[in-house]
Design a protein that fits this description.
about 130 residues, alpha+beta, Nuclear Transport Factor 2, Chain: A, 6-stranded mixed beta sheet, 6 strands
Length: about 130
């Protein structure tokens, strides 16, 4: 199961980089609930439209520090990602922490059903 999730994560990364809406369609559950780093809640159609319209274009998606938690028929992934690209005409570059919940659909394929993105802030004094 861990290798399947690793493969699904890489497929998602490549689809996001290419704004490959067809691949994203297959990798994202119709029931998606995704909370952005701005606090907005996106559906699958909202997410796909960002890629379809060109409002969101990634130049770099460089993951690190990934942790997976395997459950019975689901997997939770937490991964730090360095992102750069353009959103609504404005360039961005930052480190994000993503949480994703993957679940098998009725055909046995892994899909993201829930997720959240948080901007990683540098701490002046790490918590003790």
């Amino acid at each position: 199961m861990e290798s399947e999730i690793s493969s699904a994560e890489e497929q998602l990364r490549l689809a996001m980089l290419a704004s490959d809406v067809e691949s994203l369609e297959a990798l994202i559950s119709p029931d998606l609930v995704f909370v952005t780093h701005f606090g907005a809640v996106l559906s699958k159609q909202d997410d796909l439209e960002l890629h379809r319209s060109g409002a969101l274009r990634f130049h770099c998606i460089d993951p690190s520090e990934r942790r997976d938690l395997m459950l019975d028929q689901a997997a939770y992934v937490s991964v730090r990602v360095h992102l750069s690209g353009v959103f609504n005409g404005s360039p961005f570059q930052d480190d994000f922490q993503f949480s994703r919940l993957w679940q098998r659909n009725e055909n046995g394929a892994w899909q993201v059903i829930a997720g959240q993105a948080t901007v990683v802030q540098a701490l002046a004094h790490p918590p003790s």
